[in-house]
Target: 23S rRNA pseudouridine1911/1915/1917 synthase
Amino acid sequence: MYKRLDIAVAKQFKISRRQAKEAIRQGRVLVNGKNVRQGSFFVQESDDIRFLSEDYKFFTLPLIRIIKEERNFAAISKPEKIHSAKGKDKQNIEENLSFIFPNKNAQLLNRLDFLTSGILIIAFNSQAKEEYSYYQSQGKTVKIYLAKVWGVLTHSLLIKWQLDVKKRKKVKVIKQEERSSLRFTWVEPIFQEQDTTVVKVKILKGKRHQIRAHLASVGYPIVGDNLYLSSQDTTSSLFLHHTVFSMPGFKVIDKPSWLSQSIFSSINF
Model:
């Protein structure tokens, strides 16, 4: 019995058909030892279908979307519930950069929490990495997030509290002002919906859980954030998305899936 290659790959390796098509397009699939780049190619049960080395492990991740490639930088959109950086879990973005950007020395420049979605910035050489670090030290890497928080916020906030991030799962907020504005959190309400508010949040050089901890400390915890909520939240997702990244010569925007296009288009970035 004959079937399309993309259907056969999806079934054999337990990945989505979309991911199978992308793998085939990138030339990562062999049929009887030969590279085939057409998902519509017909195969039969006796054909030997393989991935190059163990490339299929990458395609067990949700499909990672490349938002932009320009100069020596790129931006990708990280789905929620995937680790950004290397660790015990092999299902992470950093260890799979060579599959996302073949034949490039891709290096991860920023991190997002496991539950947080949105923009990750990639450098393709050491010069680009140094450029990013320089602009970050000068407060010129602007990171804007969209979040949905519990409570009705009607005015802008500037949160300057210090954060103790050492050796603890939950970051501790210290009610003493940070010396550097690089660690401040700017919050602006966008619109209210029943007992929640969608907010725009700006940081420059963030610490771990900075936005989550700062918002909770002023009484506006993020929807879905059981770590910083005083009561249990049954929402399955964390409503926090890294939406805009900008530095001199490079800017990228990524819409969160939970926000309508009409509302998103009305926000001034």
Notes: Residues 62 and 79 are 7 Å apart (CA to CA). The chain has two domains: 2-59, 61-265. The mean pLDDT is 91. The chain is about 15% helix and 30% strand.
